Amino acid sequence: MGICTPPDPHMGLIFEPLFSEPLTVLLPEAHPLANRDHLSSIDLLEQRILLTERGCAYRAMIETALLSQGSNPFSGIEMGSIEVLKRAVQGGLGIAIIPRAAASPPLPQTVIRELHGVDLRLTIGLVFLPEIRSPGRALGTLLTLLRTRLQEEIPLSRQDEEVEHGKASLPQESPFSSTL
Predict the structure, then answer these.
(1) Is 33 exposed, middle or buried, given 0-12, 13-18 or 19+ CB atoms closer than 10 A?
(2) Which residues pair with 79 in a beta bridge?
(3) Average pLDDT over residues 91-99
(4) Is the pLDDT of residue 20 over 90?
(5) Among 13, 58, 145, 180, whose Cα sits 20 to 30 Å from the Cα of 79?
(6) Contact 27, 36 (CB under 8 A)
């Protein structure tokens, strides 16, 4: 069992969505766009956008969304972690689009702005091997707590509930749904 974004269908895993993780723009406090209340994809043209490495689900979503809006987010700068991206933004190297939870509270000398007109949310959930049928009591209690608290705090959007990924589809019931 793990917590992640929807796995590739060829992996044959069962995925149970828990919540939708919104992304937000992190900017240096002195950046010209930091004075705006919200941003659009047009505002990001000609900006140095710092990205995570290839293969990261966040990066793939950002690239797809912005390319569809006519903005190429690739600046040539890739970093291995979201924490490093935050520090690079803090140092004035560029701007980043990162999970809101990772951006809040913003580091000193940085600000958070919402990106309007682009749907940047990633479904996060539990992933299971299909052959696992029943968790132990402790894991069952943990799963129940995760489902309850995360879905209360950060609900799924309607769109996320309808997403399908082949065998990694969002099942009506995972092998661990009826724990306890």
Answers:
(1) middle
(2) 52
(3) 94
(4) no
(5) 13
(6) no
